[in-house]
Amino acid sequence: MSIEEKVENYKKTLELFPNDQEKYQYLIEQAKESSEFPKELRQDSFKVHGCQSQVWLVPEQKEEKLHFLSDSDALISKGLVTLIASIYSDETAEEIASSEIDLMEEFDLGVILSPARRNGAYSMLKTIKEYAKNLIN
Hints:
The protein is built from six helices and two strands. The protein is mainly alpha-helical.
C-alpha cells in the first residue's frame, strides 16, 4: 500500500468521528494498541528533537524498504508517532523523501492539537524524511 493510500485510509477513519474529542481519543487508542518498544532502543540517538515529550523513532532497513519503530512517554505523542510511523513504514527511502503530504492538513489534526504538539508532529515527520534522505545520499 502506498503512502497516499495509507493516508487516505487514516483520513476515512478519522472522518468517522463526529467531533474533535473522539479524534483525540482515537490517537490515544493508537498509542495503547501499539506494539511493545524495546527499552534498549530508548537512546538519545533515536530521540526526536522538537517534541514536548520524549519521542523515539528507530529506522530499520529491510530489503530496500524502511520500517520505523516508535515510542513516547506521553499517550497523545505516542499515538501521533505510531500513526506517522505506520504511514511511512514499509516504503522505500525515495518514496518517503519525495512525499509532500501535509498530514496535519489531511487529517485536520491542527484543530485538536496544541501548537507544541503540532510542532512535535512536524519534528517526527522531519526526522523520518531525514532518515530517508540520508539513505539516498
